[in-house]
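Support case: user asked for a sample of complex input and structure output to validate their parser. Sending the pair below.
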Amino acid sequence: MSRLSGTAMTLAYERRTIARDLTVAVPDRSFTVVIGPNACGKSTLLRALSRLLRPAAGSVLLDGEDIHRRPARAVARTLGLLPQSSVAPEGIGVAELVARGRYPHQGLLRQWSREDERVVAESMAATGVADLADRPVDELSGGQRQRVWLAMALAQQTPLLLLDEPTTYLDIAHQIEILDLCARLHEEQGRTLVAVLHDLNHAARYATHLIAMRDGRVVAAGPPGEVVTAARVEEVFGLPCRVIEDPETGTPLVVPARRRVPTARPGPGAEGAAPDRGATPAGP
Amino acid sequence: MIVLRTPGGLSLRLRPRAVGVGATCALLTMVLGVVAIGHGDYPMSAADVLRTLTGGGTPAEDFIVTELRLPRLVTAMAVGAALALAGAVFQSLVRNPLGSPDMLGFTQGAATGALVVVVLGGSSTMLAGAALAGGLATGVLVYALTWRRGVHGYRLILVGIGLAAILTGVNGWLLTRAPLMDAARAVLWLTGSLDGRGWSQALPLLVALTVLVPLVLLANGPALRLAEMGDDTASALGVRVPRLRLLVLGAAVLLVSLAAAATGPVSFLALTAPHLARRLTRAPGPNLLPSAALGALLLVAADLIAQRAVPGHQLPVGVVTGVLGGGYLVWLLATERRAGRL
């Protein structure tokens, strides 16, 4: 079953068409991760699924209904999004920013219910920012800030949550911290997550369902164990590699092939003499 | 943050500081208003003013207060509030503290409309109507040029500045075409003045404020706050950003144009009032009501200064707001630079 799906979508910005006849389904209660090389259309797909981009053809269905036909606030109570970049208003405090996630549940005369208060406190606790509640967002580190934005999206209390490259700009420890947090939200709260990730190994480790894209098409979709194979990685990314078992989790781990030793040593100052990685066949 | 809740599930959230700023501004406006009404060729004490306002004045006092001085005061309050609201909306929409109708061409558009009437000849009612039409036409033009496929605040600023420059040129040309006497009158209008303003100038603006402030601006205040975090974030939270922009931009342009029709373009108020309000309330977001209250207070105060600064001679209020507003901007730039924020 799938509450969120896109059928025969053509996705385009003004004159540039990113994808044609694209069909995807997000399995319920999955942690779905979309992977693919730069400019393959994965962020565009996420924009379409989160109704930020209206498909030029085809449709996005949320609970069986065209997502653009439903009231914006009703959608926002079902489907949340953590965009790639958000601007924290100058001087805003952490608790106040998280509280803004309650907007779709509020009204002009229902500005701050006890429910709002409880959910905001829970969201801050779940993301470990409760101690920062009164701090200005401007003063936080990148990792803390990303957790605050995630808390805001959680406060929206949507069964479906879309994340556009949530780990970009973070160092490796904070990347893992955010992904662990996502995995916990998925497992403990039963939310359906859809994330665009750059790191293939992170995707293979955390996803329960992978969607691999190239040139606006879905090349493969399924559990990471089936999708992540050496042949598939080379097909999608043009990267010769070996796929081994992650010693920590048992999930697939992509190890890029060693650069072939050039037959003739490049002379001094001869730049660009290294062989084209994409054209060399896989190793062993 | 204070929360008020009723058993029926209704709840209101108020910032004590913002409420305090708004209430203080309103109170000071009242006090200055009484002073302003008492001031003039026929001076009245505060007690006399209050007695007359509550219906106990002599016919002469009654005439002076309700027909001459009160309408001028009410016009000042309404224009101040309207300009401040419009400024708060523009600054929020373009996410830039320089987003004000003076910078974005709406004021210049209103002036163009008024100057056309000056050149062709026409009554003061026609002049006000033309100013309104000029401001609204500029609004439509800016919208058409920037909003075609989702707008960025940056584009609005650039298009606005371009239009402002073009319209300033047009206005200069129109002034050179006007007969000398009319040109002098036009320049006075262009400075912004409250001199001789009566109920007929105040009324359209009061009606617009009564309708637009609750129905458009306050109703969309929370959404406007969210839009400051970026279009994607706001959309994800259920804000229909393009519709929001159209609504609040339309309301703000209407307020600016009506204000210009009433007094001529009063400079710098739309820029400084929301800015100052934000510093006083320390609250993020457009701060609509505190801005409006502060705008009314500032214009009433500026008019009082304009009437008293030079003995025996009234300055146009636009001169005062220009000098004070410009001074504030320079001071602000200097302090922000020292604080390393600029």
